[in-house]
Amino acid sequence: MAYPQPSLPRRSSWPWPFFAFAALAFSSAFVDTSFPRSGSRRRSIVKAESENRPPWDGFRALRTAAFFGALPNPLNAFSPNPGSKQIKAGETLWSAQNPKSLVWGPLDDVVMGGASESFLKGTTWKGTIVTEGGGFAGIRTQPIKPAFDVSSCAGLKVRVKGGDGQRFKLIIRDSYDWNGIAWSYEFDTQTLLPSMDGIVEASAPFTEFVPTLFARRVPNRHFDKFQLTAIQITLSKFGYDGALNPNFKAGSFELEVVSIETY
User: Fold this and answer.
1) What is the per-residue pLDDT across 173-184, written as a single tens digit (0 to 9) for each?
2) SS3 for 106?
3) Rounded distance, CA 205 to CA 57, Å?
4) Pair type for strands 136-141 and 230-236
5) 3-state SS, residue 44
6) In whole angstroms, what is the distance from residue 214 CA to residue 177 CA?
7) CA 94 → CA 90, 100, 179, 200, 224, distances in Å?
8) For residue 136, what is the enclosing H or E element?
9) Which of 38, 90, 126, 224: disulfide with 254, CB 3.0–4.6 Å?
């Protein structure tokens, strides 16, 4: 069975007034307020980064934001609530057959000014992480509408192959906010008892997902199991609250996401 492939808008199909408006909205949404703004210091940092990494691709950043619906759209105010669909334990949310018709796209650090880049072909996700000015790559589904009601499930089970022993994050969301709370569960692709086919399986209870905002823990939050709105997998040099990922390697990576299912 064929599965939908992400189709990012072509650069030539976007009018220039859109770029002007989108650039303003995009910069206000993603600017890092902790970045130094004093003249000479800021120029020296930008110069140092430009000498050690590829240049930032602003067009790719805008295409990414548009693909995930992150750019302002006044029509969204009139969109009806998409509701939710009951999902039972044992249902497959993602596999090569793509039974839920999920549409994935890359969500790399280009949206934060970085130069990492990745792509998903079939069930294989691969790319290159550049730590200067960034340090993460990811894939994320477009908003799931209607949302998945997983209230009768205990968690998600992800089966992957490859990964070179690195530590990844399985991320889920319970709102349609582009930069809303990201519920994160870390899993390693290295195991003491590997299977004969090389597949690593990780069971992620919903109770153990960590509520985060830009990789920082957010207290007093509870995941809404009645509304799972997006699924994401990320490889980052950071863990939580600024701590480094102990099982991370910069450069090229490859991970086959064999399946994601409820349990």
Assistant:
1) 999 999 999 999
2) strand
3) 37
4) antiparallel
5) helix
6) 13
7) 12, 7, 23, 16, 20
8) strand 136-141
9) 126
